[in-house]
Amino acid sequence: MTFIIGLNLSDRIYLAGDTRVTHSDGKYSDDALKLSPLLNRAVFAENEIGIAVAGNVALATFFKNEISTALNNRQLNPDIRKFYDEIKPFLEEKIVDWVNAGNKYVSCCLLFGGLFKGRKKHVNLIKLQELVVEYEAKNKRDETSHTKAAFQLKDDPIFKILDQKIKEGTGIGALEHLEKSKIPHIPEEIKNAIDSGLGEIEYPDSLIFSAKIEIATKNVQLESAEWGEFLAYGDRVKKEMIPQGLLAMLELHYGKQEKTFTMESAILTNTILDYAKDLGIGTIGGTVIIMPIDKDGAHITGKDIIFQPGNTQVKINGIPVSLVPFFYYHKKRKAAADLVAKMG
Length: 344
Known about the structure:
single chain
């Protein structure tokens, strides 16, 4: 399993991953759902924790099941910050169980995102300034192409019709939308945090962190991301390779005023798949599935995703593909192998 990313925004956090899984024979499938909520929302009304995984499927499944059971039995604290404090010794103990069971010396990365409604989130005002500068710098870099495109389109008859329809629906035309998009949209809650000087905003506290697990060395390495930060892992992926403007766009683009996940989903999808294409990484691909987590809980979203009872699908190159949660994936592979053996 190859690519996961987590971003910590003001009113929500994101976990995202591609759907591609590479098998031991070098072949791959584009049907794995690498994201999962960990808590029963009916029981833990104040908390939400989600997980995204990369690395060995069986190992990730083992830890996901152990963690989920411990959380729901309250052996681990569902408050994301207390959970962070408790998870390393818990994982180290479970590594011993994995080895003693005679399993392979493999590795995986677990990416957690969670929030707790009992505390308010804090905004780092210096980080906010950095995001605004980055947002404005990106728009300045794009301004030449925007201006050229606008000049070419303004006399196009089809664009004129489109422009009028957009104006009828929103009150302003397409080019005006483009101009507005150059100005960072700072949410009202963040403006209030700046005015108060406290940096405290009216959203639940949240944290994103990763646990990189190496069975061979019995090593667990944690890394966290507060508001205005992100983490990324996968095949040849380093966080430094991901554009810093990504988080600025997700937090500050003016379309965020609409309180929808559509624009954010498009930005994340393009970032991940363009990265894989530009670097020629064949193990990253399929489509991108995203889990926004906010005060209303954890959701699943993605391009061309189709929700059906017991069979969530996504269209890849126009073809519906059933997605398999990673913690069922090894069962699917075994069932397919058994079927082939019977037919042979």
